[in-house]
Amino acid sequence: GADRAPADSLWLRAVRSPHAHARFAIGDLAPLHARFPGLAKVLTATDIPGPNRFGIFEDTRDQPALAEGCVRYRGEAVLALVGDEATVTRIRDSDLPIAWEILPPLAGIDAALTAGAAVLHDARPDNVLTRGRVVTGAIDDAWPDAAAVAEGTFETSFVEHAYIEPEAGWARRVGDRIELTVCTQSPYMQRDELAYVMGLAPAQVRVIPSATGGGFGGKLDLTLHPLVATAAWLLKRPVRCVFTRPESMAASTKRHPARVWAKLAAARDGTLLALDFRGDFNTGAYASWGPTVANRVPVHATGPYRVPHVRALTRAIYTTETPAGAFRGFGVPQAAIAQEQLLDEVAEKLGIDPLDIRLKNALRPGWSPASRRWRRTGAPRAAPRRGATPRHRRPCATAPGSPACGTASATPRSPTRRRCGSASSPMAASRSTTARSTSARAPTPSWSRSPPTRWGCRWIASTWCSATPI
Questions:
Q1: Which residue spans within 58-163 are E strands per DSSP?
Q2: Separation between Cα atoms, residue 138 and residue 161, nearest integer Å
């Protein structure tokens, strides 16, 4: 990304909004070109060859490569300067003929949901991008049977990925094709989205991934891609761009800020009975991965525990803040903060050890979570005795891939997907001698056996069962 580019590459610098919410107009650019002869092109929204909209999903393509008369977060790109490095660096934002009309920002979830709040996207008049829902059991009937109930509201903030290398790359036009070399986590997805933005066929776009330089979900979305691609397409010269650290932090996606309210109930013996869960997620100015977050969190709201009565409802909400996207877990870590804290409180009220209550309710083979998705692998049937060798350090008693070695046989309703570590994989075969040499040792409980593979993978049989429609 940042390390290499053709020697004759032009440089691109995006000019970004200093306001969270504003209308703007771009004036005459001729005096700017006359003052700075090293300036080759000033890109605006009208220069984008295609629809000037991108997103993760086809029905939520709401983010422009360059804003079209209105900005929805501080740091949104309004135009891009292309020229030699010294020139584009020397031009100050105050040199540009941009007139601003500042609008009231919608900072945070409450502001966006207030009656009469500005509508950020016409297709979502209530500023709610999407909703998620998982409901099972009869939750309203479960509370009278509870011996302990814990309830709380939890809030989290934006989190920056802070990868070592910021967004960087370069593009060149090759005939009727555009070719990009960029640091990315998703070259094929970005190829398709870039083709849409530029009005090209996917076969006309090539994305060459450089060393990622860190990502953690933050380099799944398009950033500089449509800007350098458009500049290279129009100027027919290589164009490169490297975000500064402040620019990266201002413009890249973040972990979703969340407000979670939850209520958890358990019986006298520690058996979990019910979970009522509400989660609002600040998806920022544009959709990005908001639909994934809002729909994944209800599925995982109960964590790795069995809860028979569940109501989990979520919303992804538009605000005039930095777009929130993918970040290691898609909202599930925010939900885990609530579920685990409430579980500690319930254990304390019942006088049960926090580890014991978790082991008692941890999903086991044959059990299913509230979403009705279940696996044949699960938690141990009994807690290991004190002083026993930790599970992950115990030797496997049989060769990898056999039914006694942490595998699950397939059934017509549960197709088996082979992962690394299966008996037929080269990785497992290279360690078969080690597995056989340990077979003479004392056998370990069946639930503790797993193939001795480098990545700890195993055969997993998964079954999708019917669930309440989401």
A1: 70-71, 77-83, 98-102, 128-136, 148-156
A2: 40
Paired strand residues for 414? 411
Q: Are residues 38 and 110 in contact, defined by beta-carbon separation less than 8 angstroms?
A: no
Angle subtended at Cα 437 by Cα 433 and Cα 439, rounded to the nearest 5 degrees? 120
State the Cα–Cα distance between residues 47 and 451, nearest whole angstrom: 56
List all residues 6 or more positions away from 364 whose beta carbon is below 8 Å from its beta carbon: 306, 378, 379, 381
Other CB atoms closer than 10 Å to residue 140's CB: what's the count? 11
Beta pairing class for 22-26 and 70-71:
antiparallel
How does pLDDT run across 389-402, given as a tens digit for each residue? Answer: 544 444 444 333 43
Q: Please give the angle made by the CA atoms of 266, 270 and 276, to the nearest 5 degrees.
A: 25
Backbone angles phi and psi of 415, in degrees to 5: -65, 135
Query: What pLDDT shows up at residue 117?
Result: 97
CB 368 within 8 A of CB 374: yes
Q: Which helix (H) or strand (E) holds 192?
A: helix 187-198
CA separation for the pair 77, 241 (Å, rounded): 14
Q: Which residues of the chain have pLDDT under 50?
A: 374-377, 390-470
Looking at residue 303, its pLDDT comes to 95
Classify residue 323 as exposed, middle or buried by CB count within 10 Å of its CB (0-12, 13-18, 19+). Answer: buried
User: How far is 275 from 311, CA to CA, in rounded Å?
Assistant: 6
DSSP string, 443-455: PPPGGG-----TT
- Supply the pTM of this predicted model: 0.79
* Residue at 297: amino acid letter: V
**Phi/psi of residue 432, nearest 5 degrees:** -65, -35
Instruction: Give the max Cα distance, the chain.
Output: 84
Which residues have a Cβ under 8 Å from the Cβ of 433 and sit 6 or more positions away?
A: none
Distance CA 94, CA 73 (A): 19
Contacts of 94 (CB under 8 A, 6+ apart): none
- DSSP-assigned beta bridge partners for residue 120: none
